Amino acid sequence: MNKIFQPIKIGKLEIKNRIAMVPMANLGLITDDGCFSKRAIDYYVERAKGGTGLIITGAVKVENEIEKLKMPSFPCITVNPVHFIQTSSELTEKVHSYGAKIFIQITLGLGRSGAPAFLDCQPVAPSAIPNYWDPSVTCRELTTEEVETMVKRFGEAAHIAKAAGFDGMEIHAVHEGYLLDQFTLAIFNRRTDKYGGDLRGRLTLPIEIVKEIKKTAGNDFPVGLRYSIKSYVKDWRQGGLPKENFKELGRDLEEGLEAAKILEEAGYDAFDADCGTYDAWYWAHPPIYLEHGCYLPFTEKLKQVVKVPVIVAGRMEVPSLAEQALNDGKLDMVGIGRGLLTDPYWPEKVMKGQEKRIRPCIACHDGCMGRMFAGRPLSCAVNPATGREKEYAITPAHNKRKVLVVGGGIAGMEAARASALRGHEVTLYEKTDKLGGHVIPGSIPDFKEEDRKLMAWYENELNELKVNVLKNKEVDEKLIQNEKPNVVFIATGSKAIKPNIEGIDSDKVVLAEDVLLDIHKAGEKIVVIGGGLVGSETALWLAQSGKNVTIVEALPDILISGETPIPHMNRIMLIDLLKFNNVNVVTNSSALKITNNGVQIINKGFRKDELQADTVVVAVGYKNENKLYEEIKNESYETYVIGDARHAHNIMSAIWDAYEVAKDI
């Protein structure tokens, strides 16, 4: 790894390396008056401490009067400038002490993309168009005077940002279909004043913004732009998949390159580039189903038409990919987003050649975007300390204790890891010959590679931390008594549920995990009972393997079961992929019985039908397995039941369960 650690300049500002923490939302890191909280300072400083060269904050609103949001959903730089400077100067001073630079990202606002839960006013937009989340609500068209006022606010914001010690600004955004981007896109902008019309007219607003900032802060104050090269809008609220042929209704590649040239000429000093809009939200927030480096084919072309530095994220946290992209001239700085949530020390570990110790992002969105859209603070599924670095840091225990972990799934491995970091003597027992539990079959599809990386990371960490791992060893009450532990973690997992229907024991019926482990158990025509995440991903994998697949789901739609909603971008992409791969989906229907020819189903209107199938795959959930806990819970040692053994759920739940207890053992 060489070029990634070479310095680079944005404008006249030198940055020590080519690693940028790209902006992510600040929910949970904000004071009531829209300033950065102590948690926010700890969060950003941890990434500077880990070696990141440039930190770009999450979006900060430029005003909160014309488009009024409920506080504290977003920080706002102009609500209380004095307090904003006070909190932000502490942030910038601490980030600078680690040799990093920091830009503040300033946003015009949300526009049609504003979720009603965040808004304290009627949604606004360039034109009277439907709100993305609730199309029955029409956005109010901003007046020319309001837009001009917003431009002036960017000048005020630049003055405040400079006083607070920020090294530059990034403008949010001609990107992702937010308010500023809506002005630049013909599909959303129907204005007849100076802010509408042809491409140059629609770019008037971002041009005026950068000129206003430069007028206030000076030409040497660098201003970057979050920029989507291609929108991938197939229709209103409908995105286009990779390799799918469709007519682009947003910004196509040709217009994206032309607009970039105009914006560079206007004064922008860097592009933080990607693709997508809310209508194609999975492009802006790539799930596991989009490949690493998904923006590189577009940024390579952008690099050919602009001279300023281009920052690129998009699942770029694979070190070899990042270095290769730099060497191939496809970008100038590597943008890391979620990869720095999972591991703030990504840069340091890459520099030291410790790639195996980088905790992987599994692209699930459960801990970051999923939590934020549930109104919860930003964090990370695989790193529970994210966003609460001080309170949730693991510190050495005062007294060394003997810890026994029963079960080598994700929860068990996390309990062992966290306990070992505390300095305890840890033994982990696993009854099979592999660690990973249900993640082993779940990680079989090609698109679940990150789950395989997570299991490998845990095994490596347990080895590094000298955890005694004993496989092929089933634990009973007597073994625990003989070990004489101080603390016992019961992480015995869960078991797949088989529905109580006629014919369920037929040879043609298999569990999802069994067919994942051995595709030869699947015929050519398959019915999957259950349209949750396991059933839908299994169906996609089978369809991609050439099978004819139908999903049967009792609810009105697939991927809506379970207590925790699947993050929106993951859900809509998986649904689109199922359609693209010709998976038939039958909703509001339940399996009545397994027949010689397939499955008899019954819908909500009590109409029966028979679906032809060689194989019936069952994916209707899991039930916790905690028999051992019930046997030993009253013994003298501390006993905790964690993960699926406590409550069958997902990877995030397993990790957080284990960490919550083990960090204080």
Automatic annotation (TrEMBL):
Domain FAD/NAD(P)-binding: 402-636
Domain NADH:flavin oxidoreductase/NADH oxidase N-terminal: 3-356
EC class of the enzyme, as a word: oxidoreductase
The UniProt record lists the keyword Iron-sulfur: yes
Residue runs in coiled coils: none
Alphabetized GO MF terms: 2-enoate reductase activity; FMN binding; iron-sulfur cluster binding; metal ion binding
Domain of life: Bacteria
Essential cofactor(s): FMN; [4Fe-4S] cluster
Keywords: Flavoprotein, FMN, Iron, Iron-sulfur, Metal-binding, Oxidoreductase
Enzyme nomenclature, EC number: 1.3.1.31
Pfam family, one: Oxidored_FMN
PANTHER family given in the database record: 2,4-DIENOYL-COA REDUCTASE, 2,4-DIENOYL-COA REDUCTASE [(2E)-ENOYL-COA-PRODUCING]
Family statement drawn from the similarity comment of this UniProt entry: In the N-terminal section; belongs to the NADH:flavin oxidoreductase/NADH oxidase family.
Name the record gives this protein: 2-enoate reductase FldZ
Naturally occurring in which organism (per UniProt): Clostridium liquoris
Gene designation per UniProt: fldZ_1
